[in-house]
Amino acid sequence: MAEQTKPQVPVKEEIPAMFKDSFFVAGKGGRRAAVALPIAVIIHTVLVAALIVLPLLSVSNLPKIEITSAFLAPPPPPPPPPPPPAKKASTAAVKRIKPVQAQSSFEAGKLVAPVDIPTEIAEEQISDIGIEGGVEGGVEGGVIGGVLGGVVGGVLGGVVGEVEAPVRAIGEIKAPVLIKRVEPIYPDIAREARIEGIVIIEAQTDIYGRVQTVKILRSIPMLDRAAEDAVRQWVYEPMVINGRPRGVIFTVTVTFRLK
């Protein structure tokens, strides 16, 4: 009797538990996975587009643009054209022009009556400092009232020629007499600093009694210049020794006192 064959039942292969998550079994979840993939791609695309577009649409963080307007002045007008050259006068017209010579009615040696007769005659101003027997026009550097030993012609002591060297006022020779004194000007800087004292100066006069050179013997720095300027304007009585004019070297003192 033939053996009856039993239908073969498929034997399920057992899969180890550690590999169950690694296998994909097509079945009911296949359709769901096919729909989820495009949706995920669309969602990611929208998110990326939002991250890019939203910052561009924001106007709060835009940089400020400063707009400056410049006004340009119109160019200056062109300069006026030069004037036309002057027309040269014709040679015929030039020849006709002749200089007119004024005819003088004055003749040498004859008196002529003036055209306008003055009603008043101004008085001449005559100086009262002239001296009888003086030199016409005066002498440069002269002294009002004349000089000791002066003669007609302006030569002191009547001596013509070289002038001897000045003498020093020592012993019998005394310092000349001062006839013109100019007070010194007190410097402001010395006045503010309350500086006072005596400046001693060695002066030398010429034959006319004018101070020519000065030399500081005792100095007060802030007062020296004022003392020198004053002494240079002093005038002394000229010194005459043995009938000849001489310059004199002597010392003077200039006192500065605060009032």
How would you characterize this protein structure?
The chain has helices at 29-57, 91-96, 188-192, 224-231, and strands at 167-168, 178-180, 197-205, 211-218, 235-236, 239-241, 244-246, 248-256. With 259 residues, it is α+β, with helices and mostly antiparallel strands. The strands form three sheets. It has a four-stranded mixed β-sheet. A two-stranded antiparallel sheet has the order 2-5. It is elongated and about 160 Å long. The protein starts with 28 loop residues before the first helix and ends with a strand. Residues 148-160 have low confidence and may be disordered.
SSE arrangement:
Elements: H1 29-57, H2 91-96, E1 167-168, E2 178-180, H3 188-192, E3 197-205, E4 211-218, H4 224-231, E5 235-236, E6 239-241, E7 244-246, E8 248-256
Parallel strand pairs: 1-8
Antiparallel strand pairs: 2-5, 3-4, 3-8, 6-7
Q: Percent of residues in helical segments?
A: 10-25%
Shape: elongated
Strand order of the largest sheet: 1-8-3-4
Beta-strand content: 15-25%
The total count of helices amounts to 4
Stretches where pLDDT is under 50 for at least 5 consecutive residues are 148-160
Q: Structural class of the helices, strands and pairings?
A: alpha+beta
Mind summarizing the main beta sheet? 4 strands, mixed
Give the topology string: H per helix, E per strand. Answer: HHEEHEEHEEEE
How much is the radius of gyration in Å? 63 Å
Mean pLDDT: 74
Distance between the termini: 173 Å
Number of strands: 8
